[in-house]
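Supplementary Note 3. Input sequence used for the single-chain structure prediction.
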Amino acid sequence: MDFSVPLFLSQYRELILVVFLFMTVLSFALYGIDKQKAKKGRFRIRERTLLLSSFLAGALGSFAAMQFFRHKTNKRVFRFFVPLCALLQTVFLFWLLCFV
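The predicted structure, written as discrete structure tokens, is reproduced below.
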């Protein structure tokens, strides 16, 4: 099987990893902030924003935050979308680290 790598991926591998790390931390923080706001009955972070942060390379942080804060675990879209994104992003990172 040919695992040829587009040139831009090999050139920007470290940058891609930094972006994933940043988005993971940001997503985790967003879920934590939203949970605290929910407990205090304050204005919340939009679900669309939380899902977008998951989609944009932050799914590992979102998934960890869902478990850690027990937040959004009853919402069907979060139970399906976040783990799916986390799986796809993990596969991509594995491929990036092992084959690029």
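The radius of gyration is 15 Å. Helices lie at 7-11, 13-40, 47-69, 76-99.
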